[in-house]
From TrEMBL:
Keyword line: Disulfide bond, Mitochondrion
Protein name (Swiss-Prot/TrEMBL): COX assembly mitochondrial protein
Organism expressing this protein natively: Platysternon megacephalum (big-headed turtle)
Localization annotation: Mitochondrion
PANTHER family: COX ASSEMBLY MITOCHONDRIAL PROTEIN (PTHR22977), COX ASSEMBLY MITOCHONDRIAL PROTEIN HOMOLOG (PTHR22977:SF5)
Signal peptide region: none
Family designation: Belongs to the CMC family.
Pfam families assigned: Cmc1 (PF08583)
GO cellular component, one term: mitochondrion
């Protein structure tokens, strides 16, 4: 007996989802979670100009360490995977991408 249509698809990930889309979501969330280090590195780069390679090594190392912590965390991957699956399920149900769903629709024209 075959399972009902759509049940096997719900939790299975395609290659592009597993290797591209979910890591992209992880990068975006990690940048938000490491925003203090991102801002420190950005500020250092803006103040240093061409010498940023030498002057901002400490900020760059702190930023890399923070981001790598999230990238290598299996629990963080699972969290992003669950969020992605929810977004995918909503898209399949409504046909409206998440970005468009989050935008406010005009009430009058």
């Amino acid at each position: 007996m075959e399972p009902p249509p759509g049940t096997a698809e719900k939790s299975e990930l395609r290659h592009v989802e597993k290797d591209v889309l979910i890591p992209k979501m992880m990068r975006e969330k990690a940048r938000e979670l490491c925003s203090d280090k991102v801002q420190a590195f950005t500020k250092c780069c803006q103040e240093s100009g061409f010498l940023m390679v030498v002057k901002c090594q400490q900020e760059n190392a702190a930023l890399k360490e923070c981001l790598t912590t999230y990238y290598t965390d299996p629990a963080f991957f699972e969290e992003c995977k669950i969020e992605y699956l929810k977004q995918r399920e909503e898209f399949r149900a409504t046909g409206i991408p998440a970005k468009q769903r989050q935008q406010k629709l005009p009430t009058s024209m």
